[in-house]
Amino acid sequence: MRRLSELAGLFDVAVIGGGIIGAGIARDAARRGLRVALLEKADYGSGTTAGSTRLIHGGLRYLEMLDFRLVRMDLREREILLRVAPHLVRPLRFLLPFYGEGMHYRVKMRVGLALYDLLSFDKSLPSRAFFGAEQLAEMEPELRREGLRGAAAYYDAQVDSPERLTLENVLDARGHGAAALNYAEVTGAMVRGGRVAGVRVRDVLEGGECEVRARLVVNATGPWLDRVAARLGPHPRPWLRTTKGIHVACDPVNRNAFAVRSPVDGRLFFVIPWLGYSWVGTTDTDFEDEPSRAKAEAEDVRYLIESAAYYFPALRGARVYWTNAGVRALVRKPGSASSVTRSHRIVADEAGVISVVGGKITGYRAIAEQVTDLVCRLLGQRRRSDTAEAPLPGGRERCGQGYLEAIYGCRAREVRELAEREPELGRPLDPEYPDLAAQVVFSVRHEQCMRVADFMLRRSLLGFRPDQGARAVAAVAEWMARELGWTAGRKEEEIRAYIERTREVKP
Ligand SMILES: Cc1cc2nc3c(=O)[nH]c(=O)nc-3n(C[C@H](O)[C@H](O)[C@H](O)COP(=O)(O)OP(=O)(O)OC[C@H]3O[C@@H](n4cnc5c(N)ncnc54)[C@H](O)[C@@H]3O)c2cc1C
Whose CA is nearest to atom 3 of ligand 1? Predict the structure, then answer.
């Protein structure tokens, strides 16, 4: 019950779900002075947020769907995120190669890119450009040359770790007084006179349950939305259409990002440079099972490699190090999965539950602002959001560009100070990696790191190395055991669970 004691008292709002959207809502609401509880059943950012392509993008594809409002909102948000989280979000150049496509395609592309520039009239990123075949061959030596005519270029942005983007929202929410717990699952609602008066919460790690009293409840559980809604009260109709998307991390073949059509079925997909890989994705197939069971099937991997190898023949023999799967939560509508809008909906019911349906990482801050505006209105409060201007914790001061800075931003200084104060923490976790023992201890003391996988995948980038950080797992577990007082059995169990996970994502 030690952890649950943080949830005592009456909250203005209980936010269920610590993905990027729930974390963003908790941050905005806490910064406006509301009493906030954020409840996440696993680790922050471990759901769909971790299964994404990791782009902060308007989405050229959504222009095709004529979703101008979504594209404009996301292009505005892209600019805001580049400003408030410069250590995590950075510009990325995309190329759209032309082969023998007809005139119609080329005109469509030019109009699309012109519109993209128009809709991001206030951007800091460069505008569209065009390259000839020879120049392109120099820029991208592995790109298939046969029939290559040239390419159009445009800019979007990339976030190496949406997991840490989520965490920084949680840290800021906590800094402004929010109670935030990971491994805290909402199991039901407390109902008084037809209204939800709070939620019941189970501590997944230590056991024990408690009731969390709240005047309003926000359901921000992404692909779990319908399942959680059914726990909160009658929920006759599903709101979501859930689809699975996978990615593969391959030997690097490209320097710029590519948005290309699959020769297999004509779908748009990406080949992106990410942490030294070519990161290829994604698929889009209906998936109705429990979201945490989504995984890349051999057939999904084959489809992506075959599609990408059409443009980068070297991929045919390249190594696929590991795979990743996520489940999209789309507003339920008929049609092919790829044609369903990525716009979100916010629905408030009479019982005092606000549900966030759909959305993208790119738009998370704006969605959080809209939800918090609604919360304030329902509570009779008039407080404005400041998250479009206020930097996230790691972006508060300018900092250099070292390895630690790319993870923590200006908070890297705190990690270094810890390593100086306790010199044995200044040692690397393994001679092969730059990661320090201080990072593990820092993440336990200051970033709610509770499990080995939390550190490997969501506090550091170790889990994204070709060996998924296997060489450092024992050291990470040892440092965590010392900090958290784990028994030898618990430490071994943590190592085993992480290693099992690395096997599951092997292609
Ligand atoms: C393949 C793929 C690629 C994508 N690429 C991009 C991209 O490049 N750019 C972009 O902007 N968007 C992208 N998206 C969309 C984006 O990832 C999602 O919109 C976003 O991550 C959703 O965040 P969320 O917080 O709503 O959901 P999640 O991140 O899934 O968070 C929901 C959380 O709720 C928790 N939860 C569930 N049940 C309970 C309970 N009972 N109690 C407590 N907590 C609970 C879960 O554990 C989970 O952490 C992509 C999505 C997919 C699937």
Answer: 52
Task: Give strand pairing partners of 217.
Answer: 14, 353
In the block, which residue shows the tokens 């506090």? 459
CATH code for the part of the protein at 80-159+241-339: 3.30.9.10
Query: Which residue has the least CA distance to atom 19 on ligand 1?
Result: 360
What's at 36, amino acid-wise?
V
Distance 359 CA to ligand 1 centre (A): 9
Cβ(296)–Cβ(281) below 8 Å: no
Cα 150 to ligand 1 centroid, rounded to whole Å: 36
Distance of CA 399 to the CA centre of its chain: 23
Model pLDDT for residues 211-256, shown as the tens digit of each residue? 999 999 999 999 999 999 999 998 878 999 999 999 999 999 999 9
C-alpha 22 – ligand 1 centre gap (Å): 9
Query: At the topology level of CATH, where does 3-48+163-238+341-379 sit?
Result: FAD/NAD(P)-binding domain (3.50.50)
SS3 at position 174: helix
pTM, full prediction = 0.97
**Rg of the chain over all Cα atoms, to the nearest angstrom:** 23
Q: Quick one: how far is CA 164 from the chain centroid?
A: 8
Cβ of 16 below 6 Å from ligand 1: yes
Q: CB of 158 closer than 6 A to ligand 1? A: no
Q: Could you read off the pLDDT of 430-444 as tens digits, one per residue?
A: 999 999 999 999 999
Pocket of ligand 1 contains residue 394 by CB under 6 Å: no
Distance CA 45, CA 364 (A): 13
The ranges assigned to domains in the chain are 3-48+163-238+341-379, 80-159+241-339, 397-504
- What stretch of H or E contains 97? strand 89-98
Give 282 Cα–ligand 1 centroid separation in angstroms. 15
Ligand 1: centre distance to CA 151 (Å): 33
